[in-house]
Amino acid sequence: MFFERPGGGERAILVHLEGQDPEAREDPQEFQELARSAGAESVAFVSISRHQPSAKYLIGSGKVDELRDLVHAQKVELVIFNHTLTPSQERNLERALECRVLDRTGLILDIFAQRARTHEGKLQVELAQLEHMSTRLVRGWTHLERQKGGIGLRGPGETQLETDRRLLRGRIRQIKQRLEKVRSQREQARRGRRRAEIPSVSLVGYTNAGKSTLFNALTTSEVYAANQLFATLDPTLRRLELDDVGPVVLADTVGFIRHLPHKLVEAFRATLEESSNADLLLHVIDAAEPERTAQVEQVHAVLAEIGANELPMLEVYNKIDLMPDFEAQIQRDEDGKPVRVWLSAREGRGLELLEKAVAELLGDDMFVGTLCLPQRLGRLRAQLFQLGAVQSEEHDEQGRAVLQVRLPRVELNRLVSREGWQPAEFIAQHTLQ
After folding, report:
1. What is the pTM of this model?
2. Which of 277, 351, 375, 384 is in the most buried spot, having the most CB atoms within 10 Å?
3. Matching SUPFAM superfamilies, A to Z (predicted)?
4. Are 394 and 353 in a shared domain?
5. DSSP 8-state symbol, 326
């Protein structure tokens, strides 16, 4: 946009470094999946063993020469590194390889740019791209790096690079103002749901764990779901009816990934707040993934970054259809509380178990008991029937309706406070569940 770079096609060479610190190590299989999701055609995968990264190229100069020969032999225009490159490393590699160089952050940003559908999503992606680009402006402007003098050469008093930086800062400021408006609108919607006492449940998890497929299965929606990384980018909210709880709002959110770029976490703060303000998190885990333990740790790390690591959480192990002879089930702790549900969203196995577990966790404070309603409270009786809270009904000698009910206590309190009734007048007996 603001500077010249070597062109980049779809044919690419993938470069992965081995021998780094285990904490910083990337997954080569996930890297190839990221490249495929971005639409790259991988013509070669180069794995380089290096314990001490080079400040100039990240890799050694000998490997740079080998890469350049491979680039020329394969006639590719793009080399993608499975690591974060500094602006100077990226620039030095492009000069040495004579082709476009992209690092892991740039690759993820490109995928996000392809997936964004809503106006908000496009703004968030643009913000992350501009902030990433702001450190990489020193490119093809060497012919304009000095202010000129003389007739016909007097400019605006700043170099082209300075002009680009000023324009970029202005655009970043403008996008942040728009996203702040979106954030306030989301917060207003959340306050409305809290006033209506509608619980919110948010799906979180590693990318491609099956969140959107599960979301569609639970809500009979048609959210885009595909076997690719970051298929979902824009958050989607749907209403879901649960037994004993009533309506809840279910949110499908963007997936997490190992070493998710901090710029993306910042740019998608408004979206990720759907998770940090939820009453319950459903952590969707790919049960058939060999690296699932590491993926779970990465999700917890991102949740801690957005301040959602202390929220109640239910683990949902998805894709048991890929595990032979494995049945859908609920696993509970020593207190009988659901902590894990095993299911297959694609085949619809175990969905009722998940709904049951969510209802138990959200409906901790349930009113279960007998209500004796005089005839003057006929409207309350009708509302209880409408909510499906009445389990049985009889009438006593005084003509009062004796109802066996089960519903969330907050729902009962909402009904009686709306009309100014006193629960003590008609609660015969009750127990908490």
Report:
1. 0.69
2. 384
3. EF-G C-terminal domain-like, P-loop containing nucleoside triphosphate hydrolases
4. no
5. -
Handedness of CA 73, 77, 81, 87 (dihedral sign): positive
Provide the pLDDT for residue 22.
Answer: 59
Instruction: Give the CB-side neighbour count of residue 283, counting CA atoms within 13 A.
Output: 22
How large is the average pLDDT for residues 48-68? 86
Boundary (domain end) residue, out of 363, 381, 405: 363
Domain match, 344 and 372 both: no
The CATH number linked to 22 is: 3.40.50.11060
Count the neighbouring beta carbons within 10 Å of the beta carbon of residue 188. 9
Q: CA nearest 25: which of 43, 46, 44, 51?
A: 51
Q: Could you tell me the two tokens for 56? A: 């100039």
Q: In terms of residue numbers, what domain contains 357?
A: 197-363
**Is 232 a known ligand-binding residue?**
yes
Average pLDDT over the chain, rounded to an integer: 78
Q: Is 346 annotated as a binding residue?
A: yes
DSSP string, 5-71: -----SEEEEEEEESS-TTT---HHHHHHHHHHHT-EEEEEEEEE-SS-BTTTBS-HHHHHHHHHHH
Q: How far is CA 284 from CA 112, 225, 226, 249, 426, in A?
A: 21, 14, 15, 17, 43
Ligand-binding site membership of 207 (annotated): yes
Whether residue 384 is contained in a domain is answered as: yes
What gap in Å lies between CA 266 and CA 128, rounded to an integer?
A: 8
Q: Binding site annotation covers 118?
A: no
- How many domains is the chain partitioned into structurally? 3
Query: Would you say 424 is a known binding-site residue?
Result: no
Residue 116, annotated as binding a ligand: no
Has 208 been labeled as part of a binding site?
yes
Residue 156 has pLDDT above 80, yes or no: no
Q: Is 212 annotated as a binding residue?
A: yes
What mean pLDDT is predicted for residues 323-343?
A: 88
Q: Are residues 372 and 356 in the same domain?
A: no
Query: Burial code of 393-420, b = ≥16 C-beta within 10 A, e = fewer?
Result: eeeeeeebbbbebbbbbebbeebbeeee
CB atoms closer than 10 angstroms to residue 290: 9
Domain assignment present for residue 236? The answer is yes
Asked if 28 contacts 16 with a C-beta cutoff of 8 angstroms, the reply is yes
Q: How many CB atoms lie within 10 A of CB 366?
A: 22
